[in-house]
């Protein structure tokens, strides 16, 4: 552990620390951020009345739109000159969200990422191949700072240029890699194509995050790179990656570093706090941020919390995998569908791989969903095909049957009919470095 005394704090002491910090941060934003003074006044909250965790639900939520409305610096609690660094989220729609850090915030950022790397199996002296994108995105510099704080040798490769990554991994022999899970899939596949076996690779641990992933991808990456991979979670508004990380011992949920980030899971419709174990929207209150503290920030990410003790010795609460972002949810003929649900179904079918794309179109007034999924290399060889086309699939009963099987399983477990298109190995989109968009929704245009 990087900070064992904090990571194993008793629940009582952790709670006392959180309550002290919570009342301080509420007073701090009320004093310094006009937006929060207004928001709290309008909600009739007296900052002095926020003393315990039971007071938390009295506070209003902060939503992404609040950040956009106050673009770029309106939510900052310190003068611009005190910012040591700026980051921004990718902002696929409209203006990006700008976030800022004081020197002290950067120190905390490095510490929580160092805790995350240590939880993932990394130790001082190991080499970190950091393939998260460097730049405004928090991934690259975030992992970089944490790796240095832990005492690792950091290789700032950034995303993309796969050929060079392959060479560096073989020549420099890093023990740890950090990147998106979809890019780890890409790298594993490229090594396989070159006939480099996982045993020949120096890699032992992979720290994967920034997008949802499932056990199917975990298996593929663990086997393909010869590693034990863990999940790292975070978002720029809260700090960046390193809000939470799985421990490599259990890999059953990610420990949230809750002396800094106070989590809640709430009902997506009513906003009411949900009991432990129930799936809802993850909400965070930052307890120590100086530059841009946020109260009850609505992440839009869906998961659950568990306070069950963990064998690794860490006392911090664990969150389950992210089942999806409310933004990623597809509504197909009235049914809510998350890409991770589709991925979970595919993982139960040995003849296909978790390389897929979901395309949604509107035909007249009806939504039509198409699931493009790759058949496995083994199955492809077994049927002795060079390529797949509609004619080939119609003519070959084994392919025809597989297509029906996938369609049935999707319909059975998700409740939506999808047209299934089988692709040959290598035909579905791959990550070229960053997050992979597995959904193509053509209805919006
Ligand atoms: P954006 O993607 O909007 O540019 P960020 O780069 O800060 O913003 O990404 C944060 C979001 O990425 C999270 O809210 C979550 O939806 C997703 N994310 C990050 N880590 C994970 C993870 N380990 N599993 C699933 N989703 C993740
Ligand atoms: K290995
Ligand atoms: Zn643990």
UniProtKB/TrEMBL annotation:
Catalytic activity field: 2-phenylacetate + ATP + CoA = phenylacetyl-CoA + AMP + diphosphate
Occurrences of domain AMP-dependent ligase C-terminal (ranges): 334-443
Pfam families: AMP-binding (PF00501), AMP-binding_C_2 (PF14535)
GO BP of this protein: phenylacetate catabolic process
Record keywords: Ligase, Nucleotide-binding
Family: Belongs to the phenylacetyl-CoA ligase family.
Subunit structure and binding partners: Monomer.
Name of the molecule in the record: Phenylacetate-coenzyme A ligase
Top-level taxonomy: Bacteria, Thermotogati, Deinococcota, Deinococci, Thermales
């Amino acid at each position: 552990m990087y900070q064992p005394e904090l990571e194993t704090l008793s629940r009582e002491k952790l709670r006392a620390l959180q309550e002290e910090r919570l009342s301080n941060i509420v007073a701090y934003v009320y004093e310094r951020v006009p937006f929060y003074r207004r928001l709290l006044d309008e909600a009739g909250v007296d900052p002095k009345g926020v003393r315990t965790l039971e007071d938390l639900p009295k506070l209003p939520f902060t939503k992404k739109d609040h950040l956009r409305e106050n673009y770029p610096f309106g939510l900052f609690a310190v003068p611009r000159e005190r910012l040591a660094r700026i980051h921004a989220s990718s902002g696929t729609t409209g203006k990006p969200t700008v976030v800022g850090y004081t020197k002290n915030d950067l120190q905390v950022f490095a510490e929580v990422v160092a805790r995350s790397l240590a939880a993932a199996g990394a130790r001082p002296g190991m080499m970190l191949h950091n393939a998260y994108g460097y730049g405004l995105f928090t991934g690259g510099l975030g992992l970089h700072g944490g790796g240095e704080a832990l005492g690792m040798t950091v290789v700032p490769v950034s995303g993309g240029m796969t050929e060079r990554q392959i060479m560096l991994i073989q020549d420099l022999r890093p023990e740890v890699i950090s990147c998106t899970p979809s890019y780890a899939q890409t790298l594993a596949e490229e090594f396989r194509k070159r006939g480099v076996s996982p045993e020949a690779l120096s890699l032992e641990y992979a720290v994967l995050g920034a997008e949802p992933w499932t056990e199917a991808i975990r298996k593929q990456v663990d086997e393909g790179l010869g590693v034990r991979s863990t999940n790292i979670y975070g978002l720029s508004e809260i700090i960046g990656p390193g809000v939470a990380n799985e421990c490599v011992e259990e890999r059953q949920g990610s420990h949230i570093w809750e002396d800094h980030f106070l989590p809640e899971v709430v009902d997506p419709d009513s906003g009411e706090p949900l009991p432990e174990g129930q799936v809802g929207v993850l909400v965070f209150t930052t307890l120590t941020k100086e530059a841009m503290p946020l109260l009850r920030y609505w992440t839009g990410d869906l998961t659950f919390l568990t306070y069950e003790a963990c064998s690794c010795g860490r006392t911090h609460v664990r969150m389950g995998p992210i089942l999806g972002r409310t933004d990623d949810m597809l509504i197909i003929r009235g049914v809510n569908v998350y890409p991770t649900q589709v991925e979970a179904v595919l993982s139960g079918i040995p003849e296909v791989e978790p390389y897929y794309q979901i395309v949604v179109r509107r035909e007249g007034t009806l939504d039509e969903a198409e699931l493009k999924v790759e058949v496995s290399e083994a199955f492809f060889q077994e049927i002795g095909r060079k390529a797949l086309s509609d004619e080939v699939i119609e003519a070959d009963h084994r392919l025809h049957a597989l297509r029906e099987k996938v369609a049935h399983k999707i319909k059975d477990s998700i409740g939506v009919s999808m047209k299934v298109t089988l692709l040959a190995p290598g035909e579905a989109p791959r990550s070229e470095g960053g997050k992979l968009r597995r959904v193509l929704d053509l209805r919006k245009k």
